[in-house]
């Protein structure tokens, strides 16, 4: 069993603190994705687990063993790098077998392990080529092959897909997921791309400025963001957020950010989930996803709390099965979605339905979610 | 009357042709021609006597020439190998330095800034058997003999090598350091994760990456050392009794002291083979090392 545990892990670069004492328990066989904007400390955290960065404070343990002071080679991990990091002077076969060869494993054993990895990743045709003769996707597969031949306890992936083009990225994402299903090892995966995080992870760890903001399954982060940062980071398009002020027990007045609520905005019912948790006059951020604001008659299921709004469409982005509609609610630009697309002229006013029971209320001062 | 006009490309290229002819082509043809004559500087008329391959035949059977040739090859081999090992060591250490590395790199280049003549004088003084630094140190440590550093054949070669290596190790160090700076960090980290010790990382990852840089340094230095003259001339003058005679001291003695320029030129053409062979050898190695890394060419 190889759990990975971080307790109060800190990383300082001189006076600058890059990672602020994070705690994380990763179960055996779990696929955990560390995601966040650049500079949030996710790669540093991964490199501390790998042993490529010294730990300034706290403990990292792999399989119950504290590895703070062990060099990478004694941690039984393997890592896939963003730039593939293949050995340029070795063939694919030599790259795959290198880690076993330096451990002085028997040649038959190396051949067997290399062939197995090659078969899993479909590298058989490329075995005698040098990395310079491979395409980006092939190099990435070799890098993954090099990681699996050793049967490590933990796989570490450091933004492995960022150097690939969009199509190849989608394809490799599927391969990584299949690889995890086949080998079943613990995987810790770093990316700045929330789509990769959503599609790959058993659990997502969302980081910001060296802190963990939220840990949970992709759907937990999507449906129950703890604050506005999570709400806008996870999901595409990002969640719409509109400034608002609670009026009375069951209404909220939405207004443009600059107006400060002085000029009368748009008043809508307060979602019932928030009733009793907010007080009259409290400043909030009102959030909803594009899917929860749709023109009437567009795949909106019956029932639930609804409110109707007449909104002018300023711009459309047809995506095939759906179309994104850009519109304005109380002076704030928001995105709505329409299934069963039909041509919409810019400037046309449509009747929209806002699904109140799917909306999110955040405290304006703390940005934290207010939820039952 | 219609003026005859040269084509434009010829007019544009003509200055280059003239300069190259004046500084390269004519001296080259002249020296090649004179190597087939008994040309003596003191008797210019000898330039017009053709003796065919007489000079070359004489050289090929001349034991002194071949001794100098062999000594040059030996000198070259020892100097290049020691400079490589020392330069590699220095570069690896400087690469680890995090504070004051720029200053260190500048200091590293100091020996290259001296004129070889001055380096020769300096080491001639250091190795002088009466007043030299080395013997003084040895004697103050209790040794009773004065070692004949520049007189004994083997010791004299050692002294010259020492001066040469002191002066030029930094060429290797600087070029290898450039290689280390250009080296991508990822494969090194991958090797660490793959389980390499520091030595294995160096042996299997760093060294193959540095090979092209090493062969470039080798090529440059092999040409340099094959024409070693100044330091030797100052320290020993090729003597005593030709014990430190290298190709170029022999050639300059033949050409300018004995005034037999025709013979000296013939020696020059034979010994150029040495430089060509070394250059071809190292360039092959360079291409192979680059191909190994998957670089073009």
TrEMBL record, chain A:
Boundaries of every ABC transporter domain copy: 4-234
Molecular functions per Gene Ontology: ABC-type transporter activity; ATP binding; ATP hydrolysis activity
One GO process term, biological-process aspect: carbohydrate transport
Keyword Amino-acid biosynthesis: no
Database matches in InterPro entries: AAA+_ATPase, ABC_transporter-like_ATP-bd, ABC_transporter-like_CS, ABC_transpr_MalK-like, ABC_transpr_MalK/UgpC-like, Mo/tungstate-bd_C_term_dom, NA-bd_OB-fold, OB_MalK-like
CC per GO annotation: ATP-binding cassette (ABC) transporter complex, substrate-binding subunit-containing
Gene3D superfamilies reported for this sequence: 2.40.50.100, Nucleic acid-binding proteins, P-loop containing nucleotide triphosphate hydrolases
Record key words, sorted: ATP-binding, Nucleotide-binding, Transport
Family: Belongs to the ABC transporter superfamily.
Protein's recorded name: Carbohydrate ABC transporter ATP-binding protein (CUT1 family)
Species for this entry: Shimia abyssi
Phylogenetic placement of the source organism: Bacteria, Pseudomonadati, Pseudomonadota, Alphaproteobacteria, Rhodobacterales
Automatic annotation (TrEMBL), chain B:
Keywords: Cell membrane, Membrane, Transmembrane, Transmembrane helix, Transport
TM regions (residue ranges): 12-33, 73-94, 106-127, 155-181, 202-220, 266-283
Domain ABC transmembrane type-1 residue range list: 69-282
Subcellular location: Cell membrane
InterPro entries: ABC_transporter_permease, MetI-like, MetI-like_sf
Gene Ontology CC annotation, any one: plasma membrane
Family: Belongs to the binding-protein-dependent transport system permease family.
Protein name (database record): Carbohydrate ABC transporter membrane protein 1 (CUT1 family)
């Amino acid at each position: 069993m190889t759990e990975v545990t971080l307790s109060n892990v800190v990383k300082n670069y001189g006076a600058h603190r890059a990672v602020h004492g994070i705690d994380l328990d990763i179960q055996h066989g779990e696929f955990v994705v560390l995601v966040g904007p650049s500079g949030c400390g996710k790669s540093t955290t991964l490199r501390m687990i790998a042993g490529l960065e010294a730990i300034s404070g706290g403990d990292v343990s792999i399989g119950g063993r504290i590895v703070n002071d062990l060099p990478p080679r004694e941690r039984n991990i393997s890592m896939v790098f963003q730039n593939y990091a293949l050995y340029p002077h070795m063939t694919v076969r030599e790259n795959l077998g290198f880690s076993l060869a330096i451990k002085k494993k028997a040649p038959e054993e190396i051949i067997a392990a290399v062939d197995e990895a090659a078969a899993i990743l479909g590298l058989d045709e490329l075995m005698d080529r040098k990395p310079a003769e491979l395409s980006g996707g092939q190099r990435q597969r070799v890098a993954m092959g090099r990681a699996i031949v050793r049967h490590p306890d933990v796989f570490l992936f450091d933004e492995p897909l960022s150097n690939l083009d969009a199509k190849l990225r989608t394809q490799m994402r599927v391969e990584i997921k299949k690889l995890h299903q086949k080998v079943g090892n613990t995987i810790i995966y770093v990316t700045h791309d929330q789509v990769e995080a959503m599609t790959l992870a058993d659990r997502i760890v969302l980081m910001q400025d060296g802190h963990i903001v939220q840990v949970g399954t992709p759907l937990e982060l999507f449906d129950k963001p703890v604050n506005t940062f999570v709400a806008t980071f996870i999901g595409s398009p990002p969640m719409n957020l509109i400034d608002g002020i609670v009026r009375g027990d069951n209404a909220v007045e939405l207004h443009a950010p600059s107006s400060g609520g002085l000029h009368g905005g748009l008043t809508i019912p307060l979602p019932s989930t928030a009733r009793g948790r907010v007080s009259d006059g409290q400043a909030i951020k009102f959030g909803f996803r594009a899917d929860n604001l749709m023109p009437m008659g567009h795949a909106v299921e019956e029932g639930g709390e609804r409110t109707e709004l007449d909104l002018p469409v300023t711009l459309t982005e047809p995506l095939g099965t759906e179309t994104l509609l850009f519109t304005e609610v109380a002076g704030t630009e928001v995105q709505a979605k329409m299934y069963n697309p039909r041509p919409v002229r810019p400037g046309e006013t449509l009747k929209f339905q806002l699904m109140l029971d799917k909306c999110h209320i955040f405290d304006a001062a703390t940005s934290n979610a207010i939820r039952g | 009357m219609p003026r005859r006009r040269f084509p434009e490309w010829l007019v544009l290229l003509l200055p280059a042709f003239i300069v190259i002819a004046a500084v390269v082509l004519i001296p080259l043809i002249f020296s090649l021609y004179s190597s087939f004559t008994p040309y003596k500087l003191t008797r210019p008329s000898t330039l017009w006597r053709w003796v065919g391959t007489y000079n070359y035949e004489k050289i090929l059977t001349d034991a002194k020439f071949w001794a100098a040739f062999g000594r040059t090859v030996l000198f070259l081999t020892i100097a290049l190998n020691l400079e490589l090992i020392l330069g590699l060591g220095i570069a690896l250490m400087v690469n680890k330095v995090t504070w004051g590395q720029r200053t260190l790199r500048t200091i590293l280049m100091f020996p290259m800034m001296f004129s070889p003549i001055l380096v020769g004088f300096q080491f001639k003084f250091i190795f002088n058997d009466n007043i030299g630094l080395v013997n003084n140190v040895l004697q103050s440590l209790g040794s009773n003999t004065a070692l004949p550093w520049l007189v004994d054949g083997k010791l004299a070669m050692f002294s010259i090598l020492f001066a040469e290596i002191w002066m030029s190790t930094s060429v290797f160090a600087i070029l290898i350091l450039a290689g280390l700076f250009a080296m991508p960090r990822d494969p090194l980290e991958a090797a660490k994760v793959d389980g390499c010790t520091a030595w294995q990382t160096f042996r299997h990852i760093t060294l193959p990456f540095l090979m092209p840089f090493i062969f470039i340094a080798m090529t440059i230095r092999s040409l340099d050392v094959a024409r070693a003259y100044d330091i030797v001339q100052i320290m020993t003058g090729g003597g005593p009794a030709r014990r430190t005679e290298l190709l170029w001291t022999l050639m300059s003695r033949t050409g300018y002291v004995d005034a037999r320029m025709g013979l000296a030129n013939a020696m020059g053409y034979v010994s150029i083979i040495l430089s060509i062979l070394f250059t071809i050898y190292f360039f092959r190695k360079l291409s192979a090392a680059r191909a190994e890394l998957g670089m073009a060419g």
